[in-house]
UniProtKB/TrEMBL annotation:
<dbReference type="InterPro" id="IPR010869">
    <property type="entry name" value="DUF1501"/>
</dbReference>
<protein>
    <submittedName>
        <fullName>DUF1501 domain-containing protein</fullName>
    </submittedName>
</protein>
<keyword id="KW-0732">Signal</keyword>
<dbReference type="Pfam" id="PF07394">
    <property type="entry name" value="DUF1501"/>
</dbReference>
<feature type="signal peptide">
    <location>
        <begin position="1"/>
        <end position="40"/>
    </location>
</feature>
<dbReference type="InterPro" id="IPR006311">
    <property type="entry name" value="TAT_signal"/>
</dbReference>
């Protein structure tokens, strides 16, 4: 009997281990590595209960989105500079020509309320939904934003008088720095996760983590106490191999094993994680079974739309989940358009624009458009000039924010050396390097902390999670795009 029990236990442990990665709400090794983090004990004020609901939805554009083609100046002088720096206008008949500038006749006009005298703008023709959201007041652009440790100009960059984020122009490093909340060395926690560590107390009674990922494990949502729960665009992810009558028997046996007491911390943590995976799946499945039918039409064959549609469904059952604050994550790419950018970029931008447009309509249908703010991140923009077939890694770029609480129809950032929020795009001019690598006017931490403050994070915790943000207090680090 002892031998049989031991064999059965080994078998079930191996079976559970094989399916844990897909079903668990957190990575075991990540959790273990964070146990001694200093942020676990904070002296900031606690958070009183709230009665309202708020959610942040992060869409990370992997690979470095060429956002200088997303928002384009269309007044004559600045458009001509843009065309020259982008190596000419795209020729649709010759997709492999070197020109990367969008023809002005194709750009979708947007009415930027704070554009400045004589300045006008257009949005990429593949983004009619983003243009419509902006013009309706539900969208805004953060312009010329990138990783920074302190305000930096071309002069201080060149003479080395300011510290710079490490490994500029590197995908992995810059992706991490946008997600960590502190653009220095690589870390194991992200600002979404650390924010959830502090705000999860607002979800009193909730049995699902505050952070929910539609793109698996990610650094943005990695916290100390709160780890992301992963679901897919099709719904909660079940343990693999536990279907049918045999599966039910196996699951019952697994749950019996998980209920045992284990002497070592690794086994106890493992059992806890598997238990959580089962509990999260059951809770989410039960809640979604009661979700209202969404009439909003989401575009087909669109992975971003699938993910955002599932987020809308989860938001619709926030009451059943007892959630007052939630953080969602979706990633999509690759935007690493070194090659065939003329053909590839319109498809990428169309995918995200149509998905975001449908998602905003869904929040209106659910009556939560003022409670849900969606935003893009991307590790960097691209060089303004062409490499002959595409563009290469650069630095600062533009981001899009949408929701009913966004102060829409405006652009936000900090003035560039040339004077305006939107920088001078002259190659090797006052605001960029030789190939059009734009030097950030505003830090990605300012952008992120502005969003975190709207969700409810207090300034004490903001200073802890974003330790460099107060380097940009001139007059305030808050970029001001949230009401």
């Amino acid at each position: 009997m002892t031998s049989f029990s031991s064999s059965r236990r080994d078998f079930l442990r191996k079976a559970a281990c094989s399916s844990l990665a897909a079903a668990s709400g957190s990575a075991l090794l990540t959790q273990l590595s964070l146990m001694n983090s200093a942020l676990a004990a904070t002296s900031c004020a606690s958070y009183p209960p709230v009665s309202d609901y708020r959610a942040l939805v992060c869409l990370f554009l992997l690979g470095g989105n060429d956002s200088w083609n997303l928002l384009v100046p269309t007044d004559t002088a600045r458009y001509n500079t843009y065309v020259t720096s982008r190596s000419g206008i795209i020729n649709p008949a010759m997709p492999n020509n070197s020109g990367m500038a969008v023809d002005s006749s194709q750009l979708l006009p947007v009415n930027v309320l704070n554009a400045g005298s004589g300045h006008t703008y257009g949005v990429h023709p593949s983004c009619p939904e983003l243009a419509s959201l902006f013009n309706s007041g539900a969208g805004a652009f953060g312009v010329n934003i990138g990783t920074l440790l302190q305000p930096t100009t071309k002069t201080t960059y060149g003479n080395g008088s300011v510290p710079l984020p490490p490994q500029l122009f590197s995908h992995a490093d810059q992706q991490g720095q946008w997600q960590y909340g502190q653009p220095t060395a690589n870390g194991s926690t992200g600002w979404g996760g650390l924010m959830s560590d502090r705000l999860y107390v607002l979800n009193a009674g909730a049995t699902i983590p505050m952070s929910i990922s539609l793109s698996g494990q990610n650094r943005f949502q990695a916290g100390i106490n709160v780890q992301p729960y992963s679901i897919s665009g099709a719904g909660p992810i079940a343990l693999g191999g536990y279907t049918g009558s045999a599966g039910t028997a196996k699951l019952n046996a697994l749950e019996e094993l998980l209920a045992l007491s284990y002497p070592d911390p690794l086994s106890r943590t493992y059992a806890s994680k598997v238990n959580n995976a089962i509990g999260y799946y059951n809770t989410m499945s039960s809640a979604l079974a009661g979700a209202p039918t969404l009439n909003t039409v989401f575009p087909a064959n669109n992975p971003v739309a699938d993910a955002l549609k599932m987020i809308a469904k989860v938001i619709s059952v926030r009451g059943a989940l007892q959630a007052k604050r939630q953080v969602f994550f979706v990633s999509y790419g690759s935007f690493d358009t070194h090659d065939t950018q003329v053909v590839g970029q319109p498809k990428l931008l169309s995918t995200i624009s149509s998905a975001l447009g449908a998602f905003y309509n869904a929040t209106v249908e659910l009556g939560v458009q003022n409670s849900v703010t969606s935003f893009t991140l991307s590790e960097f923009a691209r060089t303004l000039n062409s490499n002959g077939d595409g563009t290469d890694h650069a630095w600062a770029g533009n981001q899009f924010v949408m929701g009913g609480s966004v102060k829409g129809q405006n652009i936000y950032g900090r003035p560039a050396v040339s004077g305006g929020l939107f920088p001078d795009q002259t190659l090797n001019g006052p605001d960029c390097l030789a190939r059009g690598q734009m030097i950030p006017g505003a830090s990605c931490d300012q952008y992120s902390a502005t969003l975190a403050r709207w969700l409810g994070l207090n300034d004490c915790d903001i200073a802890t999670i974003f330790p460099y943000v107060n380097n940009f207090n001139s007059p305030t680090w808050d970029l001001g795009f949230m009401s």
